Amino acid sequence: MIRRLIHILVSMVMTALLWQIAYLAAGQQDYLLPSPLKTLTTAVLKADLLARHALTTGAEILLGLLGGGLVGVASALLLASFAPLRRWLVPVLVISQAIPVFAIAPLLVLWLGYGMASKVAMASLIIYFPITTAFLDGLSRTAPGWLDLAQVMGGSRWTVLRHIRIPAALPSLGAGLKVAVGVAPIGAVIGEWVGSSTGLGYLMLHANARMQVDLMFAALLVLAGLAITLFWVTDRLLARLLPWRATTNE
Amino acid sequence: MTVASVASPPPLGLTLTARHVTYDGITLFRDLTLDLPAGHWTCLLGISGVGKSSLLRLLADLAPAGSDYHVQTSDNRPLTDRVAYMAQQDLLLPWLSVLDNITLGARLRRQPADTARAASLLEQVGLADFRHRRPDQLSGGQRQRAALARTLMEDRPVVLMDEPFSALDPVTRLQMQDLAATLLDRRTVLLVTHDPLEALRLGEQVLVLTGPPASLTSHPLPADWPAPRAVDDPRLTNQQGALLARLVHQRPAGAVS
User: Is A167 in contact with B95 (Cβ distance < 8 A)?
Assistant: First the structure.
C-alpha cells in the first residue's frame, strides 16, 4: 500500500516536473500554459467554485452510469435470452455506436433542455455500448462444462441463467463497467460544453472565453481527479464483490 | 457417518443402442450396444479420440442434435432425471462456497436444498472443515472431492463419470478411486478412462472401445476378484499388461477391415 502511494506520488511529481519544463520552454506565457504551481494555487483559491461545479458533473456521471448501466444490463439479458432478438438488434446496436455521440449532443440539449437531464443522457448513451457488449459477451460464453452439468441436473433455462450464466458473466460486466467509468466523464463534459449553466465543462468553457487559463487547468485537474477516483473506487469495489474474478476456472 | 446418505436408490440397469451417431459430419457410432448391469461399475477404456466421452454423453442426454440412439432401462421408464454426471474438470462454480456448490442441483430445480445431507456428505469426503471455502481456496484433490460430493448429493441411480480423476496426481488419484468406489457402491456407474490401472481397480465390467468403426469388446477379469482392487495386487499388474497390449495392438485408425 505504502509502496503504491510512493509510486503514485513519484509519477505525480514527474508529471509536474515535465509540465514545469514545458512551461519554461514555452517562454512562461501564463495565458497559454500556466505553471503547475499557479494551477494548484488557483485550484486552492477557487476551491468553492470548483467544488460546486464538480458536484454537478459528478452527479451527472453517477446518474449516467446508473442509467446507462441499468439499461445496458437489461438489454444484454434480453438479447442473451432471445436469439431472434439478437439477430435483429445486435447490428442496430453496432450501427448506433458508429454515430458519434458528439454529433447528437446538440439534439439532446434541444430535447432535454439545458439542465442535468441532457448530460445524464449523454453519459448514459456513451456507456451503454461498452456495458451491453461486455455483459452480452460474458453471458454467451458460459463454460460449456457448466451448462452440461446444469442440464444433467435438470435446470431450466431461467434457473441456469440465474444461477450460472449471470454470475459467470459478472467479471465481463465488471470489465465493461471499468471502460464505462473511464468514458462517462467525457459524455457529461461534452454535454456541458454544448449547453449548460453549471458543471466543470461549463466552467472550463467559461474560463477559456475569459482567458482564465489557470482556472481552466484547475478545472481540468479536478475533472481528472474525479475520473481517477471513480475508476479506483470501481476497481476496489469489483475486487471486493467478485473475489473470484481473477481465478481461472474451466 | 450418518445413515441417511448411505441409503441409495434401487439399482437400475441400462442398455444403450447407438444406431447412428455423427459428430462434425463423421459417423462415430453405428449399431453399437452398451450394457450397464444394474448396481455395478462398468469401466470404458479406449485411446484418445475413439469416442468414449461421446458414448457417455449419449446417456447423459448431451448428444449432438440428430443422433439416433435408444436407452432401454431395466424398469422401462425413461432415464431422464435419473443420472448424475461428473467430468474431468471439477466444474465447481468459483463464486459459490463448497456447500453451495454441492447443493447446486436443488437450486437449479427450484427445490429446497437438504443442507443436513450436504453436510454429512462433505464429512464423508473429508471436506467438513472446508464447507465455507471457495473452490479457488482448495487443492486439486479437494476440489475433485467436492465434485464427488456434489455427484452424490444428486442421489441418482446412474452415475456417469468422464475421466474424473485424470487431472490428479497419482497418489491423490488412488485415494479418490477408493473413496468413489466406497461411496458409489451398488450404483450403476459408467466410468470412462484412458488409464488401464484405473479401469482394472474399479471395474466389475471392463470394456474396451476401439475404432473406427467403433466397436466394444469386453476384457475378461479373473473370477472372485471384487472391486476396488488393492493397488499392490499382483494380478493387477498382469491384467494391466494384457490390457495395455490390447490397446496398443488395436487396429490402427483407417485400416481396412
Answer: yes
| Position B97 in a domain | no
Torsion over CA: B240, B85, B64, B69 (sign): positive
Could you tell me which residues of chain B have a Cβ less than 8 Å from any Cβ in chain A?
A: 57, 60-62, 81, 83-85, 87, 89, 91-95, 104-105, 107-110, 134-136, 154, 160
Q: Where are the domains of chain A?
A: 1-30, 34-241
Give me the domain span that covers residue B56: 11-82+190-252
Matching residue, cell 510512493:
A6
The pLDDT of B242-253, averaged and rounded, is 72
With both helix axes pointing from N to C terminus, report the angle between B170-183 and B140-154 in degrees, rounded to the nearest 10. Answer: 20
Q: How many domains does chain B have?
A: 1
Query: What is the average per-residue pLDDT within A208-237?
Result: 92
Here the ipTM equals 0.87
Minimal Cα distance from B140: which residue of A?
Answer: A249
Whole-number Å distance between alpha carbons of B59 and B85: 10
In a mutational test of the A interface, the residue from B79, B92, B95, B136 whose CB has the highest number of chain A CBs within 10 Å is: B95
B151 Cα to chain A: minimum distance (Å): 10
Instruction: Express each pLDDT in A97-133 by its tens digit.
Output: 888 878 888 898 899 988 899 999 999 999 999 999 9
pLDDT per residue as tens digits for the range A154-182:
999 999 999 999 999 999 999 999 999 99
Average pLDDT over residues A40-60: 94
CATH homologous superfamily for A34-241?
MetI-like (1.10.3720.10)
Is B140 a domain residue? no
Radius of gyration of chain A (CA): 22
CATH of the domain at B63: 3.40.50
Chain B: give the shortest CA distance to residue A161, in Å.
10
Q: pLDDT-based confidence at B5, cuts 50/70/90?
A: very low
Most A CBs within 10 A among B56, B58, B104, B108, hence the mutation to make, goes to B108
DSSP string covering B214-254, please?
TEEEEEP--SS-PSSPPTT-HHHHHHHHHHHHHHHTSPPTT
pLDDT reported for residue B111: 92
Residue B148 lies in a domain: no
pLDDT digits (tens, 9 = 90+) for B113-134: 899 999 998 988 888 899 999 9
Contacts of A154 in chain B (CB under 8 A): 81, 105, 108-109
Task: List beta partners, residue B45.
Answer: B193, B208
Answer yes or no: is B208 within a domain: yes
Beta carbons of A248 and B94 less than 8 angstroms apart: no
